[in-house]
């Protein structure tokens, strides 16, 4: 299945979860937040939330700014 | 003298809120934050970069500085609300500096989108600190909408032009019963002192320190300026006069 993670195309196994998508970028869990198709998925739900074909996953963290 | 700044029920003894943008390195940022004495500092939310080394969050954690996520880079209320929710999830804080800009050339805040986002975020349980133009009416409306503070600009972000309309800042202060935080436009220490003399409760700045030739020294200067301006405000300045008033007896 094809999903977009932070704007880049990724191939994930069918039924892959948000947790697996995050793992593609980082092993970090704290200081990171995820939205799938513009809806926040809370950290506690990453393992239980399955992705679907063409989902847009955004993985954000804090950077210098403001 | 105890003179705490209270925002959303939280106490701060420093009235200098720092931003983290523009610092040439995390080491320089760390030294500047320490010198500034700040207890509250903004960060932005961006896509995670797996190649990035070191994090601004580590610096803040080590210095025991409270993090204030912003919604910088958002142009619509919808983007800002999503960014605030992501920040709450990532940083475990319901505080947000709401920043919705109108265009990249001026980076001026969009009052319509900002107000819309503020209402939605307040309803969602956020402690909202909106960045706004120096508009006393908008400031009042945002306070009525439940914002925990208002953050009028002195001049555009990064411009270093100081406070272009001191009269409006005074009007905002006069009407407000939430803290007024002068945000953006500070170029040097006298600008920060003026903000406090005008009655602002705090000053937020970044560029003036992070892009100074010696950031750590400028951070110290800003810390002193904010303290001096606050003391002068509390002390009460003398009235301006057209002619002299002798400070020594005129006749023997």
Which characteristics define this entry?
heterodimer, A: 66 residues, mainly beta, Ubiquitin-like (UB roll), five-stranded mixed β-sheet, 1 helix, 5 strands, 38% strand, globular, B: 252 residues, alpha/beta, TIM Barrel, three-stranded parallel β-sheet, 9 helices, 40% helix
Question: Can you give the helix content of chain B as a percent range?
Answer: 25-40%
* Spatial strand arrangement across the major sheet of chain A: 2-1-5-3-4
Helix-strand string of chain A: EEHEEE
Supply the helix-strand structural class of chain B: alpha/beta
Write down the Rg of chain B.
19 Å
Protein name (chain A): Sulfur carrier protein ThiS
Pfam families (chain A): ThiS
InterPro entries (chain A): Beta-grasp_dom_sf, Mopterin_synth/thiamin_S_b, Thi_S, ThiS/MoaD-like
Organism (chain A): Streptosporangium amethystogenes subsp. fukuiense
Give the SSE layout.
The complex is a heterodimer of chains A (about 70) and B (about 250).
Chain A: E1 2-5, E2 8-11, H1 18-23, E3 32-36, E4 39-41, E5 56-64
Parallel strand pairs in A: 1-5
Antiparallel strand pairs in A: 1-2, 3-4, 3-5
Chain B: E1 5-7, E2 10-12, E3 16-18, H1 26-36, E4 40-47, H2 56-63, E5 66-69, H3 77-91, E6 95-98, H4 111-123, E7 127-132, H5 136-144, E8 151-152, H6 166-175, E9 181-183, H7 189-197, E10 202-205, H8 207-210, H9 215-235
Parallel strand pairs in B: 3-10, 4-5, 6-7, 7-8, 9-10
Antiparallel strand pairs in B: 1-2
Helix pairs in contact in B: 1-2, 1-9, 3-4, 5-6, 7-9
């Amino acid at each position: 299945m094809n999903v977009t993670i932070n704007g880049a195309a990724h191939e994930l196994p069918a039924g892959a979860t948000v947790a697996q998508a995050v793992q593609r970028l980082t092993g970090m869990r704290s200081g990171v937040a995820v939205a799938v198709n513009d809806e926040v998925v809370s950290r506690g739900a990453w393992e239980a939330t399955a992705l679907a074909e063409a989902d847009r996953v955004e993985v954000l963290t804090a950077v210098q700014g403001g | 003298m105890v003179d705490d700044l209270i925002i959303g029920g939280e106490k701060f003894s420093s009235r200098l809120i720092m931003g983290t943008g523009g610092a040439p390195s995390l080491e320089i940022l760390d030294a500047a934050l320490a010198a500034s004495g700040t207890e509250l500092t903004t960060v932005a939310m961006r896509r995670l970069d797996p190649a990035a080394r070191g994090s601004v969050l580590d610096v803040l954690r080590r210095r025991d500085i409270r993090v204030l996520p912003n919604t910088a880079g958002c142009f619509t209320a919808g983007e800002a609300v999503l960014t605030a929710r992501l920040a709450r999830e990532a940083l475990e804080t319901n505080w947000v500096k709401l920043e919705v800009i109108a265009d990249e050339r001026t980076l001026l805040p969009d009052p319509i989108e900002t107000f819309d986002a503020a209402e939605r975020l307040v309803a969602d349980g956020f402690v909202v600190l909106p960045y706004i133009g120096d508009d006393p009416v908008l400031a009042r409306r945002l306070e009525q909408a439940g914002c925990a503070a208002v953050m009028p600009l002195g001049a555009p972000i990064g411009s270093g032009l100081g406070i272009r309309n001191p009269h409006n800042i005074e009007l905002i202060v006069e009407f407000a019963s939430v803290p007024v935080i002068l945000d953006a436009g500070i170029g040097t220490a006298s600008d920060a002192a003026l903000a406090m003399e005008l009655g602002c409760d705090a000053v937020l700045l970044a560029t003036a320190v992070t892009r100074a030739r010696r950031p750590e020294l400028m951070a110290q200067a800003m810390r002193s300026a904010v303290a001096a301006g606050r003391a002068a405000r509390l002390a009460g300045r003398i009235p301006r006069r057209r002619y002299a008033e002798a400070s020594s007896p005129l006749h023997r």
